[in-house]
Specification:
With 465 residues, the protein is an alpha/beta fold. The protein has two domains: 230 residues, Aldehyde Dehydrogenase, Chain A, domain 1 (3-Layer(aba) Sandwich); 191 residues, Aldehyde Dehydrogenase, Chain A, domain 2, CATH 3.40.309.10. The strands form three sheets. A seven-stranded mixed β-sheet has the order 10-11-12-9-8-13-14, sandwiched between helices. A six-stranded mixed β-sheet has the order 5-4-3-6-7-15, with helices on both faces. Strands 1-2-16 form a three-stranded antiparallel β-sheet. Helix 3 crosses helix 4 and helix 6 crosses helix 16. The longest helix is centred in the N-terminal third of the chain and has 26 residues. It is globular and about 90 Å long. Belongs to the aldehyde dehydrogenase family. Keywords: NAD, Oxidoreductase. One of its GO terms (cellular component) is cytoplasm.
């Protein structure tokens, strides 16, 4: 890994900042890999998960990875332009002084991607990394070994090792990878792991972007269309069987509408999945450990007095790590389903009396990656937006803010730091170098000793209210 990093850094220094044509060529090659290997990607993901929806994989890990690459290709020339800035005081401009910002490649970016969307959460940030003119080293998750191996072989077909390299291996390799002296490091994954990644990066003062998770709430407003809200919420909760960092983690529902909302959730699930067992559209939990973790959350909630309401066709059994979408009622903060990020198709429902109570509940906990609000009361929408601090918001749907190429995606506090997507990704992976060009007139002469009345007059002008 050290040798690859040194070769990439040397190549970056030797070649200098790549032209727009080189960056577009790299983006094109990345797009071509996804197009040419779409079927292979879906097959690898299905094998890694035990079962994963083929169409779901083509949507989330192929099409949704191509979009940001195409967006970067379309706009990279404009993003690269020198950005003029005002000089101060403004009179200096009349004398010929100029100021601007150049966006330079940082160099070599380390990219640690997770198991839930291995290709999307590699190629989506790669759009900004390549558009910014960087080289990259990628460490995919060991939990999806076939996908990681496929990614490594794909990348090797289209990119030299000094452009992009994929490093596979277990958590020990991941620890060593996160300690490398990159010029920037982006990590997507669990908050608990992020602490170790950030600590390792700090040894070399490597700047980091952390895309984490947390407990993303959904508020169902009193005037919400329950059936429509349920369909949209359960889309977000059952996509990839809830194994999504921006999946709605729990729902806050008016106390007198809880039962009606649970009924609407049942109709929504049956509408999408008439049966769950053997359904090609419904994804399994990625491995035994995570499946047992989710069953443990349900057992813990039941033992502490909660009520479980499985959704979908009654009486189904599963032998392939599938887990029926399950509503949990009567929850409290002592239960694991409200203490831990769920990352599965389990939805605790918390009743509230007024929207301020819902807001207070959100603010009493760690700042989440996403928030969802369902309802048409614009004043209430604005109240929720004004009084909560979260990574990103979708109103009247779930997850879709993540798909907007021109919106930054990122968390805040325990849900992450920094952002990417679109121009924000380009800037995250660029160094904004400031440049000032002095006028021919020797303006700074008055700032050099010996000081006298001219400096006194200047200071009198500056040091005032």
């Amino acid at each position: 890994m050290h040798a690859i990093l040194e070769r990439q850094k040397l190549a970056q220094l030797t070649d200098g900042s790549p032209s727009a044509a080189v960056r577009i060529d790299r983006l094109d090659r990345a797009i071509g890999l996804l197009v040419d290997h779409a079927g292979d990607i879906a097959d690898a993901l299905r094998d890694d998960f035990g079962h994963r929806s083929v169409q779901g994989s083509l949507i989330t890990d192929v099409a949704a990875s191509i979009d940001p690459l195409k967006h970067a290709k379309k706009h990279v020339k404009r993003w690269m332009r020198r950005a003029a800035r005002r000089v101060s005081p403004a009179a200096l401009a009349l004398l010929g002084a100029r100021a601007w910002v150049d966006y330079q490649p940082k160099g070599v970016v380390g990219l640690i991607s997770p198991w839930n969307f291995p290709f999307n959460l590699t190629f989506s940030p790669l759009a900004g990394i390549l558009a910014a003119g960087n080289r990259a080293m990628i460490k995919p998750s060991e939990f999806t070994p076939r996908s990681s191996a496929l990614m490594q072989s794909m990348i090797a077909k289209a990119f030299g090792e000094t452009e992009i390299a994929v490093i596979t291996g277990d958590s020990r390799v991941g620890e060593q990878f996160s300690a490398l002296p990159f010029d920037h490091l982006i990590f997507t994954g669990a908050t608990s792991v992020a602490r170790h990644v950030m600590r390792a990066a700090a040894e070399n003062l490597v700047p980091v972007t952390l895309e984490l998770g947390g407990k993303s709430p959904a508020i169902v407003g009193r005037d919400a269309d329950l059936d429509l809200a349920a369909k949209r919420l359960m889309f977000g909760k059952t996509l990839n069987a809830g194994q999504v960092c921006v999946s709605p983690d729990y729902a806050l529902v008016p106390s007198d509408r809880v039962e009606a909302f649970v009924d609407a959730l049942q109709r929504a699930v049956v509408g999408m999945f008439p049966t769950l067992s053997g359904n090609p559209d419904y994804t399994s939990i990625v491995n035994v450990r995570h499946h047992e973790r989710l069953l443990g959350y349900l057992a813990d909630a039941t033992a502490k007095g909660a009520t479980l309401r499985p959704l979908g066709a009654a009486g189904e059994t599963f032998d392939d790590r599938r887990l029926a979408p399950t509503v949990v009622l009567g929850v409290d903060d002592e239960m694991d389903v409200l203490r831990e990020e769920i990352f599965g198709p389990i939805l605790p429902v918390i009743p509230y009396d007024g929207v301020d109570d819902a807001i207070a509940h959100i603010n009493a906990h760690a700042r989440p990656l996403s928030l969802y609000y369902f309802g048409n009361d614009r004043d209430e929408q604005e109240r929720v937006l004004a009084r909560t601090i979260v990574g990103g918001v979708t109103l009247n749907d779930t997850i879709l803010h993540l798909t907007m190429d021109d919106l930054p995606f990122g968390g805040i506090g325990p849900s992450g730091m920094g952002a990417y997507h679109g121009v924000d990704g380009f800037r995250t992976f660029s160094h904004a170098r400031s440049v000032y060009r002095q006028a021919r007139f020797d303006v700074s002469a008055m700032l050099r000793p010996p000081y006298g009345k001219t400096v006194d007059r200047l200071l009198g002008f500056k040091i005032r209210r």
